[in-house]
Specification:
two-stranded antiparallel ribbon, alpha+beta
Length: about 240
């Protein structure tokens, strides 16, 4: 894949997300720190992005070149491909996400629709005691949860969690993994590392400190992790 091909492949994937209602030009502009007109010109093929600009778009959307390679290989056959299926998952409170192995119908605030292929491709890495937990749930980030992770997560963003990925090992090599974590009596959204028996919770914003938490007696790091963040959807 050359640089021009990478541009087109990224555009194709972003257009798919826009058409699915998962993304807007304004939300993408906020995530990467560009003017909305700049992003709109890119999406409408009126201008290209620099390599660093593409890197920022990929990071903001949790995309890697490896994930985009199949789109490039398919090329013109994409128009003949079957339509992508969608799945509904429950949007619940942070407390329910942390505590309920199987979400009760009464705990469902609403249902959100996400691309089924995204869920199918998500790799689990669970601890045995969480294997029976309902795997995918979503929460709505409040202003406090979002503040440390802006612009990746904005207030009122819908955050999809994979509760069967509770390992502190990175989901992708050489890339930080974003988690929902049980900390300070609530749910926080942070990049997480494991060091010397401590979980290090790293924010995106430099205005917030790195937090260190130790598993409680008899618990493992997996007990502090609620799940891996699979998808962030902004609503406007």
């Amino acid at each position: 894949m050359n640089f021009e091909g990478l541009h087109e492949t990224v555009r194709t994937e972003l257009e798919r997300r826009v058409n699915a209602g998962l993304l807007t030009a304004s939300s993408l502009a906020r995530q990467v720190g560009f003017q909305q007109a700049h992003i709109s010109n890119f999406l409408n093929r009126r201008r290209a992005l620099s390599l660093s600009g593409l890197d920022r778009v990929l990071a903001a959307q949790n995309l890697t070149v490896e994930e985009l390679l199949p789109l490039e290989i398919q090329g013109g056959a994409a128009a003949d491909a079957p339509k992508e299926f969608s799945e509904s998952i429950p949007l619940v409170s942070p407390t329910t996400a942390m505590e309920e192995a199987v979400v009760r119908p009464a705990a469902v605030i609403e249902s959100v629709t996400v691309p089924g292929a995204l869920l199918t491709a998500s790799r689990p890495r669970d601890a045995a005691r969480y294997r029976h937990w309902q795997r995918f749930v979503a929460i709505r980030a409040d202003s406090q949860q979002a503040a440390a992770m802006e612009p990746m997560i904005l207030p009122e963003s819908v955050v999809v969690l994979d509760r069967q990925y509770r390992s502190v090992g990175p989901y992708r090599a050489h890339q930080r993994t974003l988690y929902a974590v049980r900390a300070k009596g609530g749910l926080q959204l942070r990049f997480v590392e494991f060091d010397g028996g401590w979980l290090l919770l790293r924010p995106l914003s430099m205005e917030f400190p790195v937090q260190m938490i130790a598993p409680r007696t008899g618990e493992t790091p997996a007990d502090s992790i609620v799940g891996r963040v699979v998808l962030v959807m902004h609503e406007f």
